[in-house]
């Protein structure tokens, strides 16, 4: 004989189950932590500056919060994208992010205002009990490149991994020749002086000067070939990870940074993550010039 629950009792049990499940779902949403490696859970409630309801985007990479101030996006290179369609796509992505319910800026205490009164900051949006980071969104879509200035190691590694994936998939700016990884052997690097680049090549020699500055040379003529320099303090920071600069001799590496003209083209390494042994595969991705 089959037992049948009275209809009213059945509905009551179902209702209790739904309410309990709904409550658990709400609790789960509240317990969700920030996915970004750059913003901790504590920082979402401490040190944040809530921006007005209508913050605006200022090209190439600033957010105008009106009375709350103007902020540049910490950890990103302020690229003036040459492709008009890509510029529009970046603008739409930022404006969509700023249209979120609550947008805030977090500027670390180490960040000082520039001569225009702007401060570098992480820009976040609160949406459905989750905090999103604008920097993450742009890097993931290939709409911005990572600059390591002002980032701690965990944040830098997180953004670099997102950048690597975007570059591997040739998303956004990574399909443009201006932004592919440059090869020291097949490009006249002087043509890209004063631009931010990722450069690959094999270290020919390591030279240390009496003042503590170290150089990685990629050609026989240091005064015209590409060079990487590290101050004494920056070298110490780089070697703290158990690395030895002399071990890079005859090894392929990647280096990122602003290209300067110092006899020949040069990149100064001020952050350990700017310089990567290519065998670490931290910056793999399509290149226009093959080694």
What's the arrangement of secondary structure elements?
Elements: H1 7-31, E1 49-50, E2 56-58, E3 62-64, E4 70-73, H2 84-98, E5 102-106, E6 119-127, E7 130-133, H3 134-140, H4 153-168, E8 182-183, E9 196-202, E10 205-208, E11 214-217, E12 227-230, H5 232-239, E13 252-262, E14 264-269, E15 275-277
Parallel strand pairs: 4-6, 8-9, 12-14
Antiparallel strand pairs: 1-5, 2-3, 3-4, 5-6, 6-7, 9-13, 10-11, 11-12, 13-14, 13-15
Helix pairs in contact: 3-4
CATH fold-type name of the largest domain: OB fold (Dihydrolipoamide Acetyltransferase, E2P)
Order of helices and strands: HEEEEHEEEHHEEEEEHEEE
Distance between the termini: 79 Å
State the domain count: 2
Highest CATH level, the class of the largest domain: Mainly Beta
Shape: globular
CATH architecture descriptor name of the largest domain: Beta Barrel
Strand content of the residues, in percent? 15-25%
Q: What is the count of DSSP helices, taking H or I runs of 4+ residues? A: 5
For the sheet with most strands, the description reads: 8 strands, mixed
- The number of distinct β-strands equals 15
Assembly classification:
single chain
Structural class category = alpha+beta
Task: Offer a quick outline of the entry.
With 291 residues, the protein is an alpha+beta fold. It has 5 helices and 15 strands. The strands form 2 sheets. Strands 8, 9, 10, 11, 12, 13, 14 and 15 form an 8-stranded mixed beta sheet that branches.
């Amino acid at each position: 004989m089959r037992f049948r629950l009275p209809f009213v009792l059945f509905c009551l049990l179902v209702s209790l189950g739904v309410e309990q499940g709904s409550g658990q779902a709400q609790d789960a949403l509240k317990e969700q932590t920030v996915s970004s490696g750059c913003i901790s859970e504590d920082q979402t409630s401490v040190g944040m500056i809530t921006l007005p309801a209508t913050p605006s985007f200022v090209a190439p990479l600033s957010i105008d919060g009106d009375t709350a101030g103007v902020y540049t996006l910490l950890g990103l290179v302020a690229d003036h994208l040459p492709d008009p369609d890509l510029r529009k796509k970046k603008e739409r992505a930022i404006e969509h992010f700023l249209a979120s319910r609550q947008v805030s800026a977090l500027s670390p205490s180490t960040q000082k205002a520039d001569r225009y009164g702007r401060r570098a900051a992480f820009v976040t949006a609160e949406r459905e009990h989750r905090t999103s980071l604008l920097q993450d969104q742009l890097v993931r879509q290939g709409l911005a490149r990572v600059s390591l200035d002002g980032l701690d190691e965990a944040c830098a590694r997180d953004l670099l991994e997102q950048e690597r994936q975007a570059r591997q998939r040739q998303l956004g700016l990574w399909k443009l020749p201006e932004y592919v990884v440059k090869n020291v052997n097949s490009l006249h690097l002087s043509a890209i002086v004063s631009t931010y680049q990722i450069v690959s090549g094999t270290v020919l020699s390591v030279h240390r000067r009496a003042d503590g500055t170290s150089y990685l040379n990629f050609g026989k003529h240091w005064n015209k070939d590409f060079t990487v320099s590290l101050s004494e303090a920056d070298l110490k920071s780089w070697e703290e990870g158990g690395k030895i600069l002399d071990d890079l001799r005859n090894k392929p590496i990647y280096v990122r940074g602003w290209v300067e003209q110092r006899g020949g083209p040069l990149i100064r390494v001020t952050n350990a993550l700017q310089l990567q042994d290519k065998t670490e595969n931290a910056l793999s991705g399509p290149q226009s010039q093959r080694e």
